[in-house]
Amino acid sequence: MNEGGPGGVEARDAVSAPILAVENLTKHFPVKGGLFRRSNAVVQAVDDVSFLVRKGETLGIVGESGCGKSTTARLLMHLIASDRGHIRFAGRLVGAAHGLSRRNLHRQMQMVFQDSYASLNPRLPVAMSIAFGPFVHGLAKSQAQQRAMQLLQAVGLDPLLFANRYPHELSGGQRQRINIARALALEPRIVILDEAVSALDKSVEAQVLNLLADLKAEFDLTYIFISHDLNVVRYISDRVMVMYLGKVVEIGPVNQIYRNPQHPYTQALLTAMPSMDPRRRTLRAPLSGDPPNPISPPSGCRFRTRCPFAEKVCEAVPPQLLAGAQAAAVACHMRFPGSGHSRAANTVSH
Amino acid sequence: MLHEQVVSVDDLKVRFLGREGSVAAVNGVSFSVGAGKVLAILGESGSGKTVTLRALLRLLPARTEVEGRIRVAGHDMTTLDEARLRQVRGSKVAMIFQEPMIALDPVFSIGVQIAETIVRHEGVSYQVANRRALELLEMVQIPSAARRLKSYPHELSGGMRQRAMIALALSCRPTLLLADEPTTALDVTVQIQIILLLRQLQRELEMAVIFVTHDVGVAVEVADEIAVMYAGRFVELGPTDAVIGSPAHPYTAALLTSTVLGSAFGKRLETIPGMPPDLRALPAGCSFEPRCRFAEERCRAAIPPLFAQAPAHMTRCLRVAAREISLPGPNLGERNELTSSQVSGGGQR
Questions:
Q1: Does the distance separating the beta carbons of B346 and A286 come in below 8 Å?
Q2: Best residue in B161, B190, B197, B224 to probe A by mutation, most A CBs within 10 Å?
Q3: In chain A, what are the domains?
Q4: What is the ipTM of this complex?
Q5: Chain-wide mean pLDDT for chain B?
Q6: Is residue A128 within 8 Å of A164, Cβ to Cβ?
Q7: Nearest-neighbour CA in chain A from B158: distance (Å)
Q8: What pLDDT, on a 0 to 100 scale, did the predictor assign at position A345?
Q9: What is the pLDDT of residues A250-266, one digit of tens each?
Q10: Any idea where the domains of chain B sit in the sequence?
C-alpha cells in the first residue's frame, strides 16, 4: 500500500481541474497576557496546510475543537489575513497585485455559519438580507429583490409568506435556509458551510442536507463542508480532509477514509463515534485524554502524545503529508517507508 | 431480584405561565426507574425532556404549574418543604449538566467544591471530606488527582471539567443521577470516554440514571430503556434494542431514518415534513399527527393512550397498536466494520 509515488494523489486524480488551490496556508494567533499585555505565546491555529478543491465536489473537513477547521474557512474567505501561504481561485492568486481582489473572491465564494440567528441582521426583513449582497455588488434594487424572491423559492420558502418576516419570526431551520439563500445571492461557485447544520434538530438537519444536495445540482456548486459530525460529513462529502491541531493528517476519497483510515487519529476518531447498534456498544475508548492545547503543540508529529504507536522518530520529525495508494494522502511515519518508524517498511519503494 | 423503584413519576404535567398564554411543556409523563437502571429520554429541542428532568428536582422557574406525582428515593417531591428539598438535592439525587463551566463555581477550586458538598450533607470534618474528594477524583480517572484538587474549573480541559462535575455529583453517593446532555459539548474522542466512565460508575454504584439526550447514538450507548419524547409526551417507551431495532411509533421510525446513519450514503434522506406543534396550542389528537404519513381521521379525535405493543414496549400510536401499519427499522449501517482491533493492529500491512 505504500507504492503511490510522490505526487501520486494529484496526478491520478486530476480528473476535474482544481477550482481552489491552497498552498502552505498558515495562521498563528498571538496570545496576549501578563503585564503590559505582551504577547507571550502563539496559537498555531493553522500550520502549513495545503489542499485542492475540485470543481463540483464536496470537500468535507473534520476534526475536533481547536484543530483549525474554522480558521481554515475564515482564511479561505479572507475574513482574516493569513501569515503565510497562497490561495488560488481558478488559477488566479487571491489578493495579489494582478490576481483576484478580495471583493471579487467574495462573489465567487460565500460562507454559511453555524449560528443562523447571529449571522442575520435582526432589523432587516429576510428578503432584504438576501438582496443586500447583489445590490452592493451593483445590481439594480428591483433586480436584487427579484433575485431574493427566486432564491426564497429555491430554498423551499414561499416568498409571499416569508419575504417580509424578520429573523426572530423564523425557526432555526428556516433561518438557515435564509442564510443559504443569501450565500447564493451572488451566484458564487464555492460555498463554505461551517457547521451549517450542527445546531439543527436531526429531522430538520435532514431537510437542509437534502436542500443542499438539490442546490448543488441546480446551481453547479462546489462545497467545502466543515463539521464535527462524522456521519453527516460522510453522507455529503466526496473527499474528506482530517485535521488535528492545525495540521492536515489525512485527506482522501470519503469511502477510503471511512473504510480504510490510515492515520491512527482518523482511526480513533471513527472508532469513537457512538454505536447505533445496542448489541454492539463501544467497550473501550480509542484515545485517552483531551486534545492538547494548540498554544504549544507537541514537537514532531502533533498527535504523538495521544498516539498508541508513537516512537522516537515521531517526536523528532514532523511527518509530511504523503500520498499513498489510491489517491489518499496521510501524514504518518508508519505509512512512510524508510521513515525510521518500526512499523514502516524499511526500504523506500519506487 | 426485586429492585425498589428509585424514582417513579405519575402523570407529570408542567405548564409555563406567560403573558402570551401558557406553554404546555410536559403533558402527562409517567415512568419509573429502578436501582442500577438507565433510562434515556430522547427528543429534539422543545420536546420537554429537560423540563421533565428539572421537574424531578423542582428546579423550575416560579411561574410554573406542576401537576402529578413524583417520588424520588422515598420522598414525595411535590410536597417536600424547602429545607428537606435541599437535603434531598445533592445527597440522594444529583444532576450533571451539559456545560460544566457554568455548573461549577469559578472562584473555588474543584477540591473545595467537592469537600464543601460532603461536609454540608454528611456533617463530617473537612479532613475526611478532603480525603473523599481525592478518592472521587481518582474514581472519575482524573490523572494526578492530588494536584487537580487545587485546580480551578478554568484550568481544566473540557473533558476534565466534565469528570470533575461527575465527581462532584457523586460526592454523596446519590441513588439517582440526572444527566442533562452531559456529553453534547464534548469532542467525539472525549465523549466516548465520558460515556464509558458514566456506564462503569453507574454499574459499580448501582445508581439509577435518567439520561437526557438528543443523540440517538449516545442513548444507545448508555441506556437500558429509551423513552422517545415529542411535544411533552412519551410517544414510545421500551428496552433500547426494541426501540432502536423495531420502532413502534412513526415519530421514532422517522427520527431514525432521518438521522444520518451508515445506510444513507448517496441516497436521499427521508425527512419529517413540517415542524413540531406549537406548545401553546397543541392539537386535540395525536401531537405527531400533522406530520405523520400514516395519519387517519381517528388520530385527530383524541390523544392516544400508551398501548403495550410488546411486554414493556409501549407506543402512543393507534395504528401501530392495532397492527395496521408496520414501521421500518433502521439499517444500522457499516460503522461497526471499523473495530477497535483495526486500530490496534492498524500499523502493519
A1: no
A2: B190
A3: 16-32+42-274+290-297 (3.40.50.300), 298-350 (no CATH)
A4: 0.84
A5: 88
A6: no
A7: 8
A8: 74
A9: 999 999 999 999 999 99
A10: 99-173, 246-332
Q: Which residues of A touch B292 (CB under 8 A)?
A: none
DSSP letter assigned to residue A318: P
Nearest residue on chain A to B218, alpha-carbon basis: A274
Give the whole-angstrom CA distance, residue B57 versus residue B149: 28
**Do the chains contact at A284 and B196, CB–CB below 8 Å?**
yes
B27-80 pLDDT, tens digit per residue, is 999 999 999 999 999 999 889 999 999 999 999 998 999 999 999 988 999 899
A-chain residues within 8 Å CB-CB of B158?
65, 290
A171 close contact with B: CB closer than 8 A: yes
Question: What separation, in Å, do the N-terminal and C-terminal C-alpha atoms of chain B show?
Answer: 50
Q: What is the pTM of this model?
A: 0.88
A26 contact partners, CB below 8 Å, separation of at least 6: A46, A47, A48, A49, A82, A83, A84, A85
Beta strands in chain B (DSSP E): 5-18, 21-34, 38-42, 64-72, 75-76, 93-96, 176-180, 208-213, 225-230, 233-239, 307-310, 313-315
> What is the interface size between A and B, counted as CB pairs within 8 Å?
161
Q: Which helix (H) or strand (E) covers residue A184, if one does?
A: helix A172-184
| Contact list, B157 vs chain A (CB under 8 Å) | 290, 293
Nearest-CA distance from B83 to chain A in Å? 39
Chain A contact for B101, CB < 8 A?
no
The shortest CB-CB distance from B269 to any of A209, A282, A290 is to A209
Q: Which helix (H) or strand (E) holds A53?
A: strand A38-54
What band does A16 get if pLDDT is binned at 50, 70 and 90? low
Partner-chain residue, chosen from A232, A261, A283, that has the shortest CB–CB distance to B260: A232
Q: Which residues contact A4 (CB under 8 A, 6 or more apart)?
A: A12, A323, A324, A325, A326, A327
Contact A267, B338 (CB under 8 A): yes
A308: contact with B, CB 8 A cutoff = yes
Task: Give the integer Cα–Cα distance in Å for A293 and A297.
Answer: 6
State the CB neighbour count (10 A cutoff) for residue B187. Answer: 23
pLDDT band at residue B333, thresholds of 50, 70 and 90? low
Determine the average pLDDT of the residues in A293-317: 91
Contact A201 B271 (CB under 8 A): no
pLDDT for res A1: 38
CA distance A152 to chain B (A): 17
The reported pLDDT for the residue numbered A292 is 85
Q: Scan residues 54-93 of B and list those with Cβ closer than 8 Å to A.
A: none
Q: Which helix (H) or strand (E) holds A49?
A: strand A38-54
Report the half-sphere exposure of B297 (CA within 13 A, side-chain side).
Answer: 0
pLDDT band, residue B345 (cuts 50/70/90): very low
CA distance B174 to B201: 12
Neighbours of B79 (CB within 10 A): 9
How would you classify residue A290: left for phi > 0, otherwise alpha for psi between -120 and 50, otherwise beta? Answer: beta
pLDDT at B346: 36
CA distance B12 to B220: 25
User: Given this model, what pLDDT does residue B193 score?
Assistant: 93
Calpha distance B86→B80 (Å, rounded) = 10
C-alpha cell at A74: 475564515
pLDDT band at A188 (very low <50, low <70, confident <90, very high): very high
Contacts of B271 in chain A (CB under 8 A): 203, 206-207, 210
Comparing CB atoms, the residue among B187, B268, B275 nearest residue A291 is B187
Instruction: Give phi and psi for A17, each to the nearest 5.
Output: -65, 145
Scan residues 151-170 of B and list those with Cβ closer than 8 Å to A.
157-160
